[in-house]
Amino acid sequence: MAQPVVLLGAGGHDVCGEFPLARIAAVCPVLLVDPDPPAWTRPYLAGRLAADPAGGTGTAEAVLRYMAGAPVGGVLTWSGEHLVSAARAAARLGVPGLPYETAAACADPAAARALLARHGVPTAGPEDGPEATDGPLVSAEAVVLDDEVRIVALTRTTPGPPPARRPLRHCVHAHDGLLHNRFLRQCVERAVRALGLSHTVAHLTLRLTARGPRVLGVTPHLPGDLIPLLVERATGVDLAGAAAALATGRHPDVTPTRQRAAAVQFAYPAATGRLTHLRLDPAAADEPAAERMVLTRRTGDPVTAAAHADPADRLAHWVATGEDAAECEETLRRMARHLTATVAPTAGTYAA
Fold first, then answer.
1. What CA–CA distance (Å, rounded) separates 311 from 166?
2. Chain CA centroid to CA 281, Å
3. Backbone CA torsion sign across 21, 25, 27, 32
4. Among 124, 115, 107, which Cα is nearest to 205's?
5. What is the mean pLDDT of residues 121-141?
6. 162-181: pLDDT as tens digits
7. Burial class (CB in 10 A: 0-12, 13-18, 19+), 324
8. What one-character-per-residue DSSP string does 233-260 give?
9. H or E segment and range at residue 18
């Protein structure tokens, strides 16, 4: 039987975390480090350590004590907050993982940006003016092996209104033409090497500008927002399984087995206030290309308008599959008609 993989934190919501956790648990037993694990994680766990996943040296010591009776095969996290702890734990356990310096840089956006700039990787930040906010957003979903960077998919993101600009939609298309763009590929490869990433799944966000792609951020772990689900539905590549394999010293098979498209859309409140009505028409279940449509808030909840929202304010999400991005977008539009929501505005606020 495969040795367990240590997962530092699962996140507080099952909306985006259950899919990758289920995939990892199908590959190897999962030992969750979390003082109070969410109930939705329990069916997928082989064990639990009641320790702070961001505890640094203390986390590593807790895992070492556990190993006295049951060796583990690797360490994983999908939270930037726990990157440094994961690196320390992997080093103490003698299992594959990010070097401490790499994890520390990636956990600090300013440090990562400075390191990328030092290596000549084109970046975009607030100080770059319009270039930082204009142009399409694309994320490269990469699997980094010994000396090879495999871009297994590209995620196209539609942002919401400023200043928050939270994602409204993500779409993955197996035949995205940018997969063959050498400038984007070179930018991704240079960013990976500048940060010293190896044996990891990485999510690199880029802005496509008139001067070429510019790196906005590098996440050296599984992405959120159901992107692993979209990649699997569009290409057949299991990013979560790949992350587990890399964490335990194995090379994953990331050969595409599908040539389709998949997309997710998130619904945000139109106003800041209290949610008084939220309903999903049962007819949504009849949409033939619908993967899922899920309510993520309840009536009575306080919510924040899209312009200032965070992911916890999302009212619902829905996933569609199709032959291409256009087909997915049409399905997403149809599915949106099945959702109705009303917010009683807080005094002094207005609709966004």
1. 7
2. 28
3. positive
4. 124
5. 79
6. 999 999 999 999 999 999 99
7. middle
8. HHH---HHHHHHHHHTT-----------
9. helix 14-27
| Closest to 259 measured CA to CA, from 238, 239, 237, 235 | 235
Residue pointed to by tokens 């979209």: 230
Neighbouring residues of 19: CB distance < 8 A, sequence distance ≥ 6: 226, 228, 229, 240
The answer to whether the CB of 75 falls within 8 A of the CB of 95 is yes
Instruction: Please name the residues in contact with 342: beta carbons below 8 A apart, sequence gap of 6 or more.
Output: 275, 276, 277, 278
* pTM of this structure: 0.94
pLDDT in tens, 186-198: 999 999 999 999 9
* 70 has a pLDDT exceeding 90: no
Which of 155, 141, 133 lies closest to 219, judged by CA?
141
Q: Could you count the other beta carbons within 10 Å of the beta carbon of residue 115?
A: 21
CA dihedral 188, 254, 82, 116 (to 10 degrees): -10
Report whether 196 contacts 121 (CB < 8 A).
no
